[in-house]
Structure formats: structure tokens, C-alpha cells
Design goal:
This protein has about 350 residues and is of the alpha/beta class. It is built from 11 helices and 12 strands.
Length: about 350
């Protein structure tokens, strides 16, 4: 998989996992809280802060008809009218430039998910280094082609999408003009069950689509995100808030600072642990071989004396002849005088 350069960062299998903190609507309508979220996320060591760029009017219609009301008893937002929910959750466009600057000042990349073509132009004019296509927009091919035309990297979430829909979305981005594409395995349930994560799909996606694959994770905790690294995920995205108890549209499945810091540390550890196929021990293990057992004289042995369990012992350390030579020695005569605890050598066989 080709590495992808985003600002000062490189995303790829030879790099530590790229960690994205998603603010979404957890600012609760307060720019000051949004700024604090950015600062707290940066302090955890994440690589990136992601926003969502839409207004209620750009993403839906102000209608009270049944089609525009969420009807799902399992949803956090059951019964909510779409227009009202999106108005509550949206990040005002006039905040974006300042929030992006705060992120940059604190050493993290800032980018966003546009939900219509006007948002793409708006973000491109602000100089975002890449774009994100949300799971629900994966079939919005005009939007994806528009993003591709910026020639900037694009991350595409694939929750609910079929193989054909993913292929079509990738091709739409390429038709637009970008080849720097990452797709994210995603379960579009909020919060999602770990049993629905199906992380085996990550390695299949990488082979099937020939692009980098990461995880957009809506499960609780950090376990699924860490496990994804073992399947080759190069990107992990998690929603982020300062304190879940303070509420917010996505707070229930968002990470708090101490959890995000742990995710950063443990995904890094998991990536380093993946390593390579290796036998015979690492260089750092070689000294540990002395704690194996080997064959030593348990008494002083004179030349011509017969080796037996009475004068030989298998014990630590492992610096003498290996125990596999035991049968070769027993019953044979010593060719030389050997003191108790002296190493045996190949010539003694």
C-alpha cells in the first residue's frame, strides 16, 4: 500500500497508526467548548482532529413528515426531527477557520467531512489537507467526485456499504482526480456492539480494494481499536469529548481524554508488536538463552571415568552441552579430566 502524506504526517503500514479524534457535535453549540475539546485532544497525542461541515439546511429539509423523523427505538436520537437534530449538532461554518488554527497551533491536523458540494469548496478554500466521506454519504457520488477534484487525500467510511458500493465510491474519487484513498471499516450503529465489528473484514478490504484500510470505531472502550491494528488498520477514528456526563449528541459513545491517551499509547504498542515472522529469538532475547538448562559435571570426573547420572546433571545455566546430547554421553568414557561445574564441549561427545 502506498504511503499517503498529509501535512507533516505520513499514513501507511510502515508508520504508527494515525489516530483521529472526531469532535462531531460534542461542542454542544459552544465555540469555547470546541476549542477546549481541540486542546484536550491534542494533549492525548492524537494526530488529527476531525470536524463535520454542514448546516441543517444543507443536509436535510425542514420537514415534519415521517420520513424526516428518526423512528428507531435502538437509536440515541429516536423521535428526533432531522432538521432540529442537525441544527443542534452542526459546527457553525464561521467557527471553522479559528478552530482549524487552534488545532494547528497545538500540533494536530484539522480536517472535516463535507456533506454537500458547497462544503467541499468552503473547506478547500480554508486549506484542509484532506477530506473525509462519512458512511452515510458513500453513495453520494457527485460529492465524492467533487472531493476527488481537489486532488487531496480522501478517507471514506464504509459502514453498511456493499462491495459494489465501495468499489463505486473509490472509482468516483479516482475519476475526480485523486489516488490517495483510505477506506475505513465502520459499523454505523451508535454505540456499536463489539460483536458487530467484524475486524476480519479489514484485511479482506485491503486485498480486495488495493488501498489502505482503517477503522471508524463507534464501540465503547479501546479494545476494538487496538485489535484492529493486528488486522492491518493504518487509521483509527474515535469520537471524542471532554466528559461524557456533560452530554452532547454523540457523548455516549465518545472517548474521554484519559481513554484517548490510552488508545494512542496502546495502538502504538500493538503496531510495534506486529513486527515480522521471526523464529530463533530476537537479538534482545539471546542473553536469555543462558537460563535454559544444559549438561554439567555434578562431580569431579577423572579421565576414563564413565559418564552417568551420578556424575552428570541437567541444570541451569544453558552454557554447556544441550540436554539433547544426554544419550550421547551416558555410558561413554571421559576423554579428559573435568571439574565439577566445568562446561562440556563438543569434543567430549
Amino acid at each position: 500500500m502506498q504511503p499517503i502524506k498529509v501535512g507533516s504526517k505520513t499514513i501507511g503500514p510502515d508508520e504508527e497508526p494515525f489516530i483521529i479524534a472526531e469532535m462531531s457535535g460534542n461542542h454542544n453549540g459552544s465555540k469555547e467548548r470546541a476549542i477546549e475539546i481541540i486542546k484536550r485532544a491534542a494533549a492525548t497525542g492524537v494526530d488529527c482532529l476531525k470536524f463535520q461541515t454542514y448546516t441543517a439546511d444543507t443536509i436535510t429539509l425542514n420537514s415534519t413528515k415521517a420520513d424526516f423523523t428518526i423512528n428507531d427505538e435502538k437509536s440515541l436520537w429516536n423521535g428526533r426531527q432531522l432538521h432540529g437534530l442537525y441544527h443542534e449538532a452542526h459546527t457553525p461554518w464561521e467557527w471553522h477557520e479559528e478552530l482549524f488554527q487552534v488545532a494547528n497551533d497545538h500540533g494536530v491536523i484539522a480536517f472535516s467531512s463535507p456533506f454537500d458540494e458547497t462544503a467541499v469548496d468552503f473547506l478547500d478554500n480554508l486549506g484542509v489537507p484532506m477530506f473525509k466521506v462519512a458512511s452515510f454519504e458513500i453513495t453520494h457520488l457527485p460529492l465524492i467526485r467533487k472531493i476527488g477534484q481537489t486532488r487531496k487525500p480522501v478517507i471514506i467510511s464504509t459502514g453498511m456499504a456493499s462491495i459494489e458500493e465501495i468499489e463505486t465510491a473509490i472509482q468516483a474519487a479516482r475519476d475526480g482526480g485523486t489516488d490517495d484513498i483510505i477506506i475505513l471499516k465502520c459499523t454505523s450503529q451508535y454505540p456499536a456492539n463489539a460483536s458487530d465489528a467484524n475486524l476480519e473484514t479489514i484485511s479482506d478490504m485491503a486485498e480486495r480494494f488495493g488501498v489502505q484500510v482503517g477503522l471508524s470505531d463507534h464501540t465503547l472502550g479501546i479494545g476494538v481499536g487496538i485489535a484492529a491494528i493486528g488486522y492491518g488498520a493504518t487509521v483509527i477514528e474515535k469520537h471524542f469529548t471532554i466528559d461524557r456526563s456533560e452530554g452532547g449528541v454523540d457523548s455516549e459513545f465518545s472517548m474521554e481524554p484519559h481513554e484517548m491517551k490510552m488508545l494512542r499509547e496502546e495502538t502504538s504498542r500493538a503496531w510495534h508488536a506486529s513486527g515480522q515472522v521471526k523464529y530463533d529469538g530476537t537479538d534482545n532475547e539471546q542473553k536469555s538463552k543462558q537460563f535454559r538448562q544444559s549438561i554439567y559435571p555434578s562431580k569431579d570426573i577423572v579421565q576414563g571415568e564413565v559418564f552417568s547420572s551420578e556424575n552428570l546433571k541437567i541444570c541451569r545455566p544453558g552454557l554447556s552441552l544441550a540436554p539433547s546430547n544426554w544419550e550421547k554421553l551416558i555410558g561413554k568414557s571421559a576423554k579428559r579430566k573435568i571439574e565439577m561445574g566445568e562446561r562440556l564441549v563438543e569434543a567430549d561427545l
